Amino acid sequence: MPYDMLNQQNNGILSCKSGGCSRECGNGTCSHGCSSASPNELPDEALVTLITKIVLEHLQAIQHPTFNDANPQTNAESTKSSPTQPKNHKHSYSVSPSHHPSEVVIAVGPAFGTGAAATINGLPHNQVLSEIKAGIEEEGMDIRILQVFKSSDVAVIGKEAADLSGSGIGIGIQSKGTAIIHQTDLQVLSNIELFPQAPLLTLAHYRQIGKNAAKYAKGDNVTPIATQNDPMIRAAYQVKAAIMHIKETEKADRSKKTIEITSSLHS
User: Fold this and answer.
1) How far is it, in rounded angstroms, from Cα 183 to Cα 185?
2) Are 204 and 138 in contact (CB under 8 A)?
3) Which of 35, 56, 80 is the last residue of a domain?
4) What residues make up the domain containing 211?
5) One domain for residues 7 and 100
6) How far apart are CA 70 and CA 259, in angstroms?
7) Which of 79, 82, 103, 182 has the greatest CB tally within 10 Å of its CB?
8) Residue 77 pLDDT grade (very low, low, confident, very high; cuts 50, 70, 90)
9) What pTM does this model have?
């Protein structure tokens, strides 16, 4: 797996651990196109090229898996596995739209709590959900938690939450922590509030996201959440963000229905 080639250091700086390299792709023999400098020393353009090549190799491996001719039994067993099954959810079932106006729906992405256990900046998924729920409960609203499999796009996840919510207000969140407050009568690429810089979000932010969503559902006047804007954060986390997005997209399945989660996430 190309993931094994990547070792996250210093907030997402890439180090290659490919077999042909003596020091982080530093001897010029790396099969992934690295120069004589280590990725820690590569310019931005070369680093992006390296990341893109590894990502494309991984996507190609997914589309054209390599089978072990010497062990057909292993191949058969591997093809039976279901990577999209949420192993950490003890009870789940398909859902329908609600008609309870006091309800706010939280929808998580395909890899939330299963393909990953924490957001991009290390906040445990169960704590993130707990804070969002607490914010909603503080406003006296009911909660339903769903998991969306048809897309890894936070806008699609949030729109699904809003469409299934009795109040028409929903919260969508990816496994890396990007979040959105959506409304059922909006287009999918529109939103009420969007929180794109996941590395800067704290548990306090997620609690306020829950509170604001509940206030929108009640028709209250709402002050949008103020978050930090760091133009350098994308560069610092670009590798980790790309890997987490790939993992989430791998678990997406358009044929799989949205389910309701009736047990808590486990780290």
Assistant:
1) 6
2) no
3) 80
4) 92-261
5) no
6) 39
7) 182
8) very low
9) 0.68
